[in-house]
# Entry
Amino acid sequence: MSVVFALATPAAKSAICVFRVSGKGCLESLNDLIEKPLDGYRIFGVRPVYFNKRLLDTVGVISFKGPESYTGEDSFEVYAHGGLGVMSLFVDLFKSLGFDEAPPGEFTKRAFLNGKLSLNEAEAVVDVIDSSVVEDVYLSSKSLSGDFSKAVIAFAEEIDFIRVRVEGEIDFSDEGQEFLDGSLFNDLVNLITRFDLFTGGCLNKKNRLVKNKVLFVGPVNSGKSSVFNRLLGFERALVSNVPGTTRDLIESEVFYNDLSFSIFDSAGLRDTDDLIEARGIALAVDEIKNVDVVVGVFEKKDSVVMDYFEKISKSKIYISLLNKVDLGLVDSSGFDCCLSAKTGEGFELFKERLKGVFAEENNSDSTFLVRQRHINLFEESVLNLRAALDKLRKAEVLELAAEDLKIARSCLDEVVGFKSSDDLLGDIFSTFCIGK
# Structure
């Protein structure tokens, strides 16, 4: 494989930028770059780097001798100043040395191909990076550490042991040796039961990709946009005393402690002859079915109006807010939270209320975060295990039961990457970021 390089940090002005380089021969090129060799592998050094006989930058450098590296190949990393000009010059420098720009996921793909990571561990790398919920970080890190691979391989070895006994019955039954006894059936049933429990404890990443959604509704001029902006921490929605200012759905994302959720500001509901505003109102009502939580924002107690908004929220979780408490004493009965978008009073309680809603929904006793690919393979494996058990119980052709067990094992091999197609690898690593 050729020597590849990539910027491993965002291409934006920052304190430092990091370039990763990997491939046979890259360490020889590094020695040409820094003139004075490093003191050893895995030892960080500071060296000047020249390009076209001019000082480019004084950088931090660390080198790794394969196979004791992330990719399993000779590699090094350069820590330079994070200026856009510096980044551009380093790209030119590396290209002048004959290095190729790495496509997305190239370094982790090489780590997999060189036996440094199993396939699911390679997938866990990007899962850790993608995680926006604290629990997802822990679950993905467990997979990255190898715990998931060990569990899957252990189940695969149990399938092998049962299959050996079935094959033994096929090959040696004429010699008076008995392999199909009651313990084999019990072992297979026990394996299926435990594997079902294992797969049931895995959380599908696909379900985590759906953002928790919060929609703000309410009458005009109740302060929805002001509450929306205060929750975000900056002015995202236009705020005005003129009724009908918000005419469309406005979306932003909020991170609070270990949770993230999307919030939508909507047009105030009222009768209007303005076609654009009317369309915005219709969008707000229609969007209710697509969200998890509806927040009704009001500036005063009005039972008729409050009941109307709670009714159109249907079966969704509904939170009623009394806004503008900074204006004086008000009747707060019937509201879930009282706050002021102007002063910020009551917002911590409101955010804790939202956190409580989503924390309850996100609470799980899951053991690992997995992908739909894993779920499909697990389901196919269990299906074949059950088919093998059924054939063995009915004393049908043993060769077919053995084939079912072989397929069940093969599915688990594909999970960890013992057997994988080039197309599958291309699909998986194309989702990675550049530099990883």
The chain has three domains: 4-102, 120-201+371-429, 212-362. Residues 212-362 form a domain with the Rossmann fold fold (CATH 3.40.50.300). Confidence is low (pLDDT under 50) at residues 236-249, 270-278. The two ends are 17 Å apart (CA to CA).
